[in-house]
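Section 3.1 - Work completed
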Amino acid sequence: MNSERGLVLEVRSALSAACPSLRDGDPADAVGGLTPSFVASPASTHEAAALLRAAASSGLAVVPRGAGTGLGWGLAPSACDLVVDVRGMDQVIEHAAGDLVARVQAGATFGHVASVLAKAGQELALDVPADATIGGIVATGTTGPRRLRYGSPRDLLIGVTAVRADGVVAHAGGKVVKNVAGYDIGKLLAGSQGTLALITEATFRLHPLPEAVAYVTAEFGPEQRGAAAAALQSAAGSALVPSAVELDWPPGSPQSPRALRVGVLLEGTSSGVAERARRMSELLASAGGSPAVAVAEAAPPRWGQLPSPSTVIRVTFWVGTLAGVLDAVAAAGAGAGVRPAVTGSAGAGALYACLDPGTEHDTAVRFVRALRDRLDSGASGGPASAARPASAARPASAARPASAAFGGPRGSVAVLAAPAPVMEGAGAYGPVPGSALMKAIKDQFDPDHRMFPGRLAAL
């Protein structure tokens, strides 16, 4: 017992020497039910590097943390000895307004960064919570409706500074948009969920704030899924340059089914947006189903929001297969006895099916398995590896038709958030075609698998 206590004191001493802002972990710091022994808050990349070197010498499992808004999503870590809280690194280091570039520390909140950039009439074109940290946004790949036009964090990232598990500092990219030197490690770290390295700084390309915006919405009846899908595909592939094309399909009830809403965001100059909104209204109305079309300056209800954070299933697909995907969701729900709320950037090939918090665990598992069976098999068999991720989805005009090579809709089904029994019973990701490559990359960056171990199923 004395030797164990001495070892703990030795580890604490090494960590505190590297990062003075160190404390013991408590239940409020738990990640996936695991309470860390220590929580450290480095104030710089230099401190973070020294901290991870000390952690490596003691073989500690490390979990990076920003605001914690995404820690509850995905698989829980298999071990958690040290939580590295990056919120002490919270500065906008450089804003080159003339170059539309900003370099930001990982702990800065999106809201703070947005306020700084707005003074120059610019923005980081992401739709994320104001309290989310920049490092967390990049690590989780968090995005929103405008991903259709601007892409995800990895598409806006032009440079990154990160600390490997062994404490070595790595720099990639630069401070100019057209920098092409070296390997694009930033895009590798984006969406890695903190399993490869600790992000400490990020450099982004920016966009001017739009002068005007317009939301064009079309409401389709419950039995007009095909017409809604056709309208959405036409909007996403149109020359009117939509910034977002969203689908909202509330669950309703058998006695009172809910309509489907197609929403389109247009941004630009006042005169240009007004004309594009008029033409977009005509385009949506011509899709069939006689939808009710409206134009407004304010976002419609539930825009960019998840109906429920309890059980969230993400479906990614070729945009041209949307009608079949909606049919698959409806059929899987009917078979399991649930009516999920469906929302998301369907124009970019991504939807979220959310189950009511009161849904029985076995019922949720049945729904996920049924949906995965329908979309993984494409209704007539074949591997799921051909499904295109949402971050790479093509416009509807170029989307592969549902019957192009498969007998039905195809897509990838991932459980992003769910009670532990659902996550265990349904599996978080299903088949992962690139698992061998992912493991090889993990072995290169983190040979001992100490960075957020167990977070990704393939690792």
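Second construct:
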Amino acid sequence: MVDDTYEHQGQLLWVSMRSGSAALMLNKAPEPIEPSGARYFLYTENLVGLRERLIRDGWEPAEIVDGTPGPKQEMAICDPDRHFLTIAQIGD
């Protein structure tokens, strides 16, 4: 069941669907996605700590930014298989 959407200038950009405890969020990509890549949206309870650990382990996550109209804190990273991950902070 669709439980939330976001439109900008009359264009649907984001939708959230839920069934029980399962949630699926879909976002329109700002540019074409390469066929080999995929995009995922994940949540963590400690975004700052996760980013610090990724950096220590040699990853290059983006800065934490305001994801409004979605989560207030999120960051992006691309894994070695070219999966684009957006990771957001759970709660405030």
